[in-house]
Amino acid sequence: MNLIFAKKITSYNIQKISDFLNNSFIKSDVYKDSAQRDIVLLKPNLLSKPTKENDFVTTNRIVIEATVKLLLANGINSDKIVIGDGASAIHKNMDDIFEDSGIGEITRRYNVKTVNFNKLGYEVRNGIKLTEYLKNNLFIINLAKLKTHMLTKLTLSVKNLYGLLPPEVKLAYHSQFSTEDLFCNLISKIYNAVSPDFNVIDGIIGMEGNGPGGGERVETNIMACSKNGYALDHFISELCGYKRDEILFIKHAVKNNYYDGNFTVEGDYEKINMKRPTRNTFTLSLKFAGKRFTRFLFSSYPKVMNETCMKCMKCMKMCPEKAIVLKNGFPYVREKKCVSCYCCIEVCPYKSIKTKKSAVEGVWNVK
């Protein structure tokens, strides 16, 4: 049975977080097993440069610091500990993100290192292009964030490993696997190929609405962890009110025999109330709505709000289909070319890209 540890935690108190993680690490042999590897890689969610207004977008620095301190206190040398990520494809230089998320200070205080996956090449594993850093003898601790997601409904442990892909591969896969079903099958396979050793979800403060970058702050008051990320995400998604098969990367994990669909929980927790992404309010058969020549009738498309757009053009740089062009000086989404991957919403730092209802929704006035 896949064991999940859960704890209701309402603030980023490092002692409470450390106590929870330490108990989970001991019972899961994290200290013993990580000591046998050359590198202990901490993989947080560092989607973009955080600010005081959107510090809930990334894995909180206190969770990362608590993990580092516990490893050091339990015999893992500082030169073995590495914090690594590759944020969205437009962030070749991760230095600002590492610094502004608090990781820079952690590296200096505890003498640990960082690695930017966006500057590395790739290796092919199970047919998937992943960062070549995985060639090392790694013990991977996956430090995910509880957020909603426009395409996958939730960003949790499984989706967090998308940061292990080189930037050009991220863009190519968003284009190649453009529907929710195809993309969720892909990220389920990525998790299976990487197979992290332990997974932690920072859900003390989460994101609701149109995440993973354009949502809103919400108090979700939970931390949870497990050796099995599929089970962990299954548990969290049920707390958020989803059935297992509604989260398609869990559905595919069961279908592909990566996960048996069962888990048990140790600890205390409550149901999570959070707004769902607006693009998931209307669904039709994927076999029908997924066809490119009919998708424009049934899909919710991004729309740039010119009144708040600051013309940073990050959306244009990020779009895998080159569907965003300049029109009257502002970015404009060409709907017939758009595949509704919502990467533009993900990277917009000003929340200036919204979703508009599909043509069918507009006629039927679906809410």
Explain this structure.
The strands form 4 sheets. Strands 1, 2, 3, 4, 7, 8, 9, 10 and 11 form a 9-stranded mixed sheet that branches. The protein has a two-stranded antiparallel sheet with strand order 5-6. A two-stranded antiparallel sheet has the order 12-15. The protein is of the alpha/beta class and 367 residues long. 33% of the residues lie in helices and 24% in strands.
Question: Which descriptors would you attach to this protein?
Answer:
367 residues; two-stranded antiparallel sheet; 2 domains; globular; Alpha-Beta Plaits; alpha/beta; Rossmann fold; 9-stranded mixed sheet
Question: What CATH first level of the largest domain would be assigned?
Answer: Alpha Beta
Could you describe the largest sheet, including whether it forms a barrel? 9 strands, mixed
Q: How many individual β-strands?
A: 15
Whole-Å distance between the termini?
40 Å
Mean pLDDT: 88
Whole-angstrom Rg: 20 Å
How much helical structure, as a percent, in the residues? 25-40%
Tally of domains:
2
Strand content: 15-25%
For the record, the CATH architecture of the largest domain stands as 3-Layer(aba) Sandwich
Q: What best-fitting shape do the alpha-carbon axes yield? A: globular
Order of helices and strands: EHHEHEHHEEEEEHHHEEHHEHHEHEEHEH
What structural class should be given to the helix and strand makeup? alpha/beta
Low-confidence stretches: 280-290, 360-367
